[in-house]
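Components:
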Amino acid sequence: MTDTDVLIIGAGHNGLTCAAYLAMAGLRVTVVDRRKVAGGAAVTEEFSPGFRNSVAAYTVSLLNPQVIADLKLAEHGLRVVERKAQNFLPASDGSYLLTGEGRTKQSVAKLSPRDADRIDGFARELEDIADVLRQLVLRPPPNMVEGFGVSAVREAFNALGTANVLRKMTLEQQRSLLDLFTRSAGEMLDERFESNLVKALYGFDAIVGNYASPYAAGSAYVMLHHAFGEVNGKKGAWGHAIGGMGAITQAMARAARGYGADIRLQAGVREVIVERDRAAGVVLDNGETVRAKYIASSVNPKLLYTRLVPSGALPPEFFARMKNWRNGSGTFRMNVALSALPSFTALPGPGDHLTAGIILGPSLGYMDRAWQDARDHGWSRKPVVEVLIPSTLDDTLAPAGKHVASLFCQHVAPELPDGKSWDAHRDEVADLMIATVDAYAPGFANSVIGRQILSPLDLERQFGLLGGDIFHGALSLNQLFSARPMLGHADYRGPVRGLYHCGSGAHPGGGVTGAPGHNAARVILGDHRGLFR
Ligand SMILES: Cc1cc2nc3c(=O)[nH]c(=O)nc-3n(C[C@H](O)[C@H](O)[C@H](O)COP(=O)(O)OP(=O)(O)OC[C@H]3O[C@@H](n4cnc5c(N)ncnc54)[C@H](O)[C@@H]3O)c2cc1C
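Structure:
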């Protein structure tokens, strides 16, 4: 006897997506989460009296349109609006780059006529490849299997399906794809552009959540990962969910509950029960046991396999590799309540640029030095900060006339050197981040009337993001596609029968996409109906 058909560990957006699809198909589904609110890293909270903001994830693009449609998220209240400008990059010499529909080329031309001639071509190159990869996002990647059993036949067909998608690329596009998966963004951008700000625009995407130099091999893939998305059908655009990122997960929770899923909060999992080599249930923090036919985990795979599943239940080689799963984004996240909008020296006063992702990190060299400094010192003393002021698009977040801003700060060490603790340095680094913004927008520091600070350690404590990793594991080639979370387990099935992966540690990785949740649900349903096993 089981208490439920599927027990999902974690009510982040992927756990909720998986729950909604499975409940829609008629299975009994229970989701458990240790937090007080559903949504994982995509939640909105009041962080200062009267001021609400997305706590961790803060901007929408990657959320898959199929998931939005299938779960009827618009009917459940989700509304996503576009930024009026996409990105604004000020430099300390007074120059700036402002991108967005109808403005990018003109703005680039002021910095470099040569780059203006080239930027559409590069954007198209990325877009063409992102278009092909979009077709691979909602299907399991080919999984490596040993022997010639049913799984091998299934995977042979899967590999053919994937090859069929890739076959549509020209040879030149396939060469670009290889470059983007293996090379550094820095090298590729230096080959194409001369303006520091143009290179920084793309370079920022290569280091978001990636604790590495933009000149590190593999950083080009992280840049591509951020190009997959779209907002209301506009490919590559970034937008804002009215009410903050919590609006996405609240809509997902409503969808899941509407199909009958039970979402239990403040119900952390202490252990996964394994009986006769099969996952049979979980023990909650309060000692309660919940038994299920299938368990799907949306937590970081290293957390699952080194803390929740008894190590004796795992193949030793799997356990050894999982202990070395690479986490650590090097990000520091702040929310600030503002008495007034900032005014940037490079483009003073209000305007569409204040709705954009404002990137403070004016060159690839600056980003490279920021990483090196963080490695030596624990945090970069000249950090890269993205400022987003969602209250310029959404008046539900702050009192009239006041604003909220998200600061997404790159290049702090997940763990500080020399035994230093983030608890001792959190405020000092927060002051540095605010001073960094103030250097571009004098008066900003004085306008801050409330703040919330999340160091990598806080991200781990509050959200279970090991090492503060925003993607549940680095997006490096050895942890991507058929290797996410490990060769042999890219089919959302873990090494313990009945235990599945439905979070960002599975293909296609991190970001608010809903894709791993969607894909895992299909695999679980297939297994339940006896299609594959
Ligand atoms: C600071 C930050 C900024 C980001 N910015 C963006 C952005 O702007 N746009 C974007 O698309 N993506 C962004 N991301 C990435 C994105 O938010 C994540 O990749 C995504 O939300 C992960 O979703 P998930 O459902 O896979 O996992 P999570 O959201 O991490 O959910 C996992 C859930 O499991 C729960 N859990 C953990 N341990 C247990 C346990 N033992 N028992 C029960 N429950 C447990 C957690 O409480 C959590 O609710 C950001 C992430 C961070 C941290």
